[in-house]
Design goal:
Layout lengths: L4 H11 L3 H8 L3 H9 L6 H11 L3 H7 L9 H10 L5 H7 L6 H7 L6 H11 L5 H11 L1
Length: 143
Amino acid sequence: MRDYSRDLVALRNQVGINQQMAANLLKTPFRTYQRWEQEGSRMHTAFMELLRFKCSAPKDVIATYLVEVNTEPTPAEIKSARLKYGIEEPDLAGQVIYMKDKTWYRWESGKRKMKRAFLELFYLKQRTPTPIYEQYAKKREIA
């Protein structure tokens, strides 16, 4: 986690959205977003990557992301997402979105709640031409 406050302001100004819209894009409470931007509170790298991805899309596409969905994914939905892309190890799925070991497992087992934005980023990254998890798999084979 790090302070992305300057990056957040610059990115938001670049695409012409306000703080509420940025919070909606990240599916996070408005006050939380304000703390990240104004008070320099630290945020997870996954949130910044998701915002960069969404803000790089055409403006009409950005508008589709502004629908507010605050429901948390269920453990079954989380496991299904991992298996959909052929990732057998929960820790490997977690690495795709910069999570520590055992975090994905805890989400799948229901011991922790996953933020919707993390699952959304996971899906977006898996749709890239070379899924990120393949890069991690190759690193593990070498180690």
